[in-house]
Every structure is written in C-alpha cells, then in structure tokens.
Design a protein that fits this description.
Helices cover 35% and strands 27% of the residues. It has helices at 6-45, 168-195; strands spanning 50-51, 66-71, 74-83, 89-99, 108-117, 128-136, 142-146. It has 196 residues and is α/β, with parallel strands linked by helices. A seven-stranded mixed beta sheet has the order 1-2-6-7-5-4-3, with no helix packed on it. α1 (6-45) packs antiparallel against α2. It folds into two domains: 6-37 and 167-195; 49-163.
C-alpha cells in the first residue's frame, strides 16, 4: 500500500465520483424532459383557442396551445428551412409582428411562421388576424406557427412535442462510460506500477 500514490488516487476517485453524479443528473433531466413532453402533448389536445392580444415574452403555460391574436404590423420578413404539412422540404416564411403599448420601451414582438413556400421572396402580407400554435424556437425563443397559413402560403408541418430531442439517456450513458474508462485506465496504470 505504501507504493500506491495517494494524491493521484484521490484525484481519480474524485473525478469518477463527479462523472457518476453527472450521469445521474442526466437521468433526472431525462425524466423531467419526459414530463415536459407529456405536458405539451396534453396541451396539443386542448381544443380551446387562447385569445392573446399581445405577447410580452415567453409564457410556458401557452406552449403548444392554439392562440389567436392580431398582428398590427409586420416589421420584417426572414426565411428559414422548413417542412410543409405534406412533408416537403422548402422554405418557411417568418414574419416578425410588432406592436407598441405606448411606452418608450422596445415594442412587443412575436415571430409568426406564416407558411411554407418554394419562393424565397417575402409575401405581400402586412399584418392581420393570426391563429396558430405557440411553440418554443425562433429568434425570440418562442414563435407562432400559423394554422391556417397566411398570405396564400402552404401549411407548415404541424408542431409535434414528440419531435423535441430527449437525448439525456445517451448523455448519462456517456458519463458512466467515462467514469468506468477512467477507473480501468488508472487500475491498469496502478497495476503496472505495483509490478515494477
């Protein structure tokens, strides 16, 4: 035992303990994500449309619910890769709706995925009534996927909470494998040292 290096052994065991703890943390995150996806799936099944006159920020309670609001002004358009309701790849046209409540602060804004197209040109739509599904994503952290689509565009693929990634299981396995690898490598090095 006198030939066993104490400080390196302690450091390796501490590193292994941290990696094991991170693995269990990822397992906890996996269960949390499963619960979140189940909650979003239940929200999708709710038929009631929430009338939301303004969006001041991300409201977790509304995610994957149908919302309806008036877009008073389209401040800008952008395009992003998208998929249509009939599973074709192409371009999603995204409108940035803005409005002010009269305060000098930055105007309220929400991104609306107006619809799918093969044409990158901005549609001729300057605002109006919007109904759609409120989901995470976009430049603001949240967006509305219009349903029905706007400006004569084709319907986007309907948002599905089950498309959200839940790869915490694989992360947990990686941390446990890192811990095991560290133990095996240190064990082999220690064995070689003791034999010398």
């Amino acid at each position: 035992m006198k030939r066993v290096p104490v400080i390196p052994t302690i450091l390796v065991l501490l590193a292994v303990a941290v990696m094991v703890r991170l693995g269990f943390w990822q397992l906890d995150r996996m269960h949390q994500k499963d619960a979140q996806i189940a909650s979003y799936t239940a929200a999708v099944r709710q038929a009631a449309v929430i009338d939301s006159p303004a969006f001041a920020g991300l409201d977790e309670a509304l995610l994957y619910r149908r919302v309806s609001f008036a877009c008073p002004k389209v401040a800008s358009w952008r395009t992003t890769a998208g998929r249509s309701a009939d599973n074709r790849d192409g371009i999603t046209q995204v409108a940035r709706c803005e409005w002010s409540d009269g305060s000098p602060a930055k105007p309220h804004a929400v991104e609306v995925e107006a619809g799918w197209s093969n044409n990158p040109a901005s549609p001729a739509w300057n605002g109006g009534a919007v109904t759609g599904v409120y989901v995470p994503g976009g430049l603001l952290g949240y967006k509305v996927v219009a349903d029905p689509p706007l400006a004569g565009l084709i319907a986007n693929a309907r948002p599905d909470p089950n498309d959200l990634p839940n790869n915490h299981w694989s992360y947990a396995v990686q941390w446990f494998l890192f811990a095991l690898t560290a133990l095996v490598i240190y064990g082999l090095a220690l064995r070689k040292r003791l034999k010398a």
